[in-house]
Amino acid sequence: MEHYLDNSATTPVLECVLSKMNEVYTSEYGNPSSLHEKGYTAQKIIEEAKKTILSTLLPSGKNPVAKQLIFTSCGTEATNLAILGFAASKPRNSGKKFIFGETEHASVISCAKHLESCGYKVAFIPSPKGIWDMEKYVQELNSDTVFVSAMLVNNETGAVNNVSEIFRLARAVNPNVITHCDIVQGYMKFPKNLFSSADMLTLSAHKIGGPKGVGALYVSENVLKARALSPVIFGGGQENGFRSGTENVAGIAGFAEAVKYFRDNYAKISSLFSELYDYTADSLKNTGSDRIVINTPETDLKATHIMNVTVKGIRSETMLHFLSSKNIYVSSGSACASNTNSKSHVLKSFGLDDKDIDSSIRISFGIQNTKEDVDALVLAVKEGLDTLSKRN
Ligand code: PLP
């Protein structure tokens, strides 16, 4: 039996998503840009998907405008469009300042470093114990600050920051600042009022049972009015000119289907994650080992589908492979960074020393998980702790 506990890397595709995608691939395969019935139908599928997704992002009572959602090939591309597209929309001015969280996903950090190498002023805000260092942030904010990016849920620790407050402080200093929030790990798991004040939002389908290779960038009316976004991919002018390339119609339809599933089962899913989190924490504690430490964020809110655990004295790769040999799947750090040798920038910012960073694993729950998955995991971690430590 398999125990897949790496759902923050990706999730299994939902049945309802598969059947919707199958229907689109087999019957509604037209190119949305074609000027015949098959094309119109495909275009309609995209419009319907936009309506569904926008209704989960906008403050209640706001009428969605199709232009406000731009489908992309993934969350990474959406973030590149937000950051590089914003920079490209303005005359090059190295005096302008961009502020980013130090524990953002690699897609944000890499764009930030690229801007820095182009001569822009860039500041990174640390997050000890998962909490944005607001003192440092306030020191960095000035009237030259044109862009602030802060993620909702950290993908390695589950820390949830008060992004509304982060964005409010930026607007108090520069009312024209543009704000961006990567909600990939929090989308459909936290209420929209937590992030709806952001000007731009990054989304990804495959963290909620949708297909891989589909993402979206939400842009506020404010961004559109201020012409604060330029495309970074040029071509046939699809997605209102913001993202050229023939749309992934089946993937987009599948994304909307996954969103509907999470919307309709929101309460049930939230309580499942809380239950699994508490059960895992208790079971790890009941092993009686003081070498198992849960790196709990000290943020007011935390995501219960993500748990970061240090198993002291055992390298995470060693534990990962041991667990994998028993068909138990977790990850070390984020999936995107774990195939590189660099130490997790997130856990470093969190305050872990190098040894503990090297011994940390991430457990992340999905809607298919049960307490049996947790039992298998905890038993195997305990076994690993006893047998592997002899060899380490
Ligand atoms: N942002 C966060 C917080 C993520 O966890 C991920 C993926 O792990 C991404 C962005 C990138 O999304 P995608 O895999 O769709 O490029």
Structure report:
The chain is an alpha/beta fold and 392 residues long. It contains 13 helices and 14 strands. Helix 4 links the parallel strand 3 (97-101) and strand 4 (121-125). Helix 1 packs antiparallel against helix 8. The two termini are 28 Å apart. The model has no long low-confidence stretch (mean pLDDT 95). It binds pyridoxal-5'-phosphate (PLP).
Summarize the structure.
This protein is of the alpha/beta class and 392 residues long.
Quote the CATH topology of the largest domain.
Answer: Aspartate Aminotransferase, domain 2
> What small-molecule ligands were found?
pyridoxal-5'-phosphate
Based on the structure given, which CATH architecture of the largest domain is correct?
Answer: 3-Layer(aba) Sandwich
Helical segment tally? 13
The share of residues in helices is 40-55%
